[in-house]
Amino acid sequence: MDNFIYDTPTRVYFGKEQEKKVGEILAEYGAKKVLIHYGGGSAVRSGLIGLVEECLKAQGIEYVLLGGVQPNPEIKMVRRGVELCLREGVDFILAVGGGSVMDSAKAIANGAADPSVDPWDYNMGKAQPKKTLRKGCILTLSAAGSEMSNSCVITDEEQSMKRGYGSPMNRMNFAIENPELTYTVDAYQTACGAVDIAMHTIERYFCPGEDTYLTDAIAEAVMKSVRKAGEDCIKNPRDYVARANMMWASSLAHNGLTQCGRAFQLVVHQLEHEVSGMYPKVAHGAGLAALWCSWARYVYQANVPRFLQWSQNVWNVDVNYEHPEETVLRAIDLQENYYRSIGMPTCLSELGVKEEDLETLALRCSRDKTRTLIGYKPLAYEDVLEIFRMAF
Ligand code: NZQ
Ligand code: ZN
User: Fold this and answer.
1) Which residues hold their Cβ within 5 A of ligand 2, which is an ion?
2) DSSP class of residue 35?
């Protein structure tokens, strides 16, 4: 087991009606002027933004509103948010929404804390944020895990380029998680969320590392729980137990718990970010579903025992000890069938990706052939291109 630091500073308020506490919570943090940041309208239609406004007024906390964050959030909106925060003297940011709103809020918080740096430079790795504004969220979609993660993923819409970065500055101070707020999430987004949540843990599970049987057991439980919860949420969108398990899994899958003692890389995420960067209508979870099985078929031979453990413990398949590879391929097929069963794509063409763009996607992912993704099998430009072709 590798050495590790486990640092998850986000305070979680979980359960029914927790959003009604938002005014008191912000008052506890001493917030004076809050930016309430939200998306394309779901949080307005549900009445949640109105409720938040009432809660802040009741505590005498001033606020400004900034809605309109799009899925795969844009740097243009971040820059607008930074300007607004500086003009209005905002000292706390409240994200009300899913991963896109939370990431936009994180980028604004970093940008407003140090206006001498263009926030896109953080995403490009040209600078590291050294300070940030305080921030919290009210989660309305179980998926990205941004509510407890240290990462922030933004798209430069002019270059059709999506980039994420990790930093301790990207942690939310608090996350309000009421599963009932996700009852209105449609079947497609719910399925995208189930894929993304599981993937945050699957990717960590398939990172180099030894002797982490506790971490492995937690990871396998997350993967199985999300599968069940996702299916149950799709069957009955108002199933509280299923929505609650999805939401908690969203936070645990990506807060670092399922990587303790193992190396950390999100390889398939790197492939997917190129896809949803170039095709902004592609939902991140759907992009992951279209890619993961091809990645697994490409790399599994580099660590058959690990894939076998996953096949047994997560898919409960009988092992063919003479031909363990056959068992692994069977489990990957099961994963693919599961994606189909919840309405997720299993190839890039289903997402509208054009064959002639595969080389550009691979070039971008390999940073013009200068970057090799590290994992059980190093993936240079040619490998990445081959995976994109297999997934097409
Ligand atoms: O914009 P509104 O109208 O609110 O609608 C949203 C959006 O259209 C809708 N929605 C959200 N809550 C809802 C709802 N609809 C009905 N009822 C509700 N309660 O859902 C749509 C998708 O929202 P979005 O926030 O884009 O989805 P998600 O949470 O999957 O976030 C995706 C973004 O997060 C990034 C992705 O790359 C993508 O940009 N990620 C961020 C990560 C992080 N910061 O740790 C990790 C992830 O791997 C991921 O890369
Ligand atoms: Zn993800």
Assistant:
1) 196
2) E
The residue assigned the tokens 């009432």 is: 54
For the CA of 149, the nearest ligand: 1
178 CB neighbour count, 10 Å cutoff = 22
Q: Atom 32 (ligand 1): residue with closest C-alpha? A: 99
Q: Which residues pair with 94 in a beta bridge?
A: 36, 136
Verify whether ligand 1 is closer than 6 Å to residue 105 (CB atom).
no
CB of residue 143 inside a 6 A radius of ligand 1: yes
Same domain, 170 and 213: no
Average pLDDT over residues 68-87: 97
* Residues 52, 28 share a domain: yes
Task: Name, in order, each residue with C-beta under 8 angstroms of 145's C-beta and a sequence gap of 6 or more.
Answer: 99, 196, 197, 200, 250, 251, 253, 254, 255
Domain membership flag for residue 177: yes
User: Taking a C-beta distance cutoff of 8 angstroms, is the pair 361, 355 a contact?
Assistant: no
Residue percentage of the chain with pLDDT more than 90: 98
Residue closest by Cα to atom 15 of ligand 1? 185
Q: Which of 119, 153, 182 is the last residue of a domain?
A: 182
Distance CA 223, CA 196 (A): 11
Average pLDDT of the residues in 347-376: 97
Query: What is the three-class DSSP state of 139?
Result: strand
Residue 133's pLDDT band (boundaries 50, 70, 90)? very high
Instruction: Report the candidate in 42, 101, 41 with the shortest Cα–Cα distance to residue 71.
Output: 101
How many distinct structural domains can be found in the chain? Answer: 2
Q: In terms of residue numbers, what domain contains 323?
A: 187-391
Q: What is the pTM of this model?
A: 0.97
The answer to whether residues 253 and 345 belong to one domain is yes
- Which of 182, 203, 225 finishes a domain? 182
Q: How confident is the model at residue 225 (pLDDT cuts 50, 70, 90)?
A: very high
- Ligand index nearest the alpha carbon of residue 288: 2
Say whether both 191 and 175 belong to one domain.
Answer: no
299 lines ligand 1 (CB under 6 A): no
For residue 44, the domain's CATH number is 3.40.50.1970
List the residue whose alpha carbon is closest to atom 48 of ligand 1: 144
Beta carbons of 327 and 319 less than 8 angstroms apart: yes
Q: What is the pLDDT of residues 337-347, one digit of tens each?
A: 999 999 999 99
Mean predicted confidence (pLDDT) in 339-359: 98
Q: Is the CB of 145 under 6 A from ligand 1?
A: yes
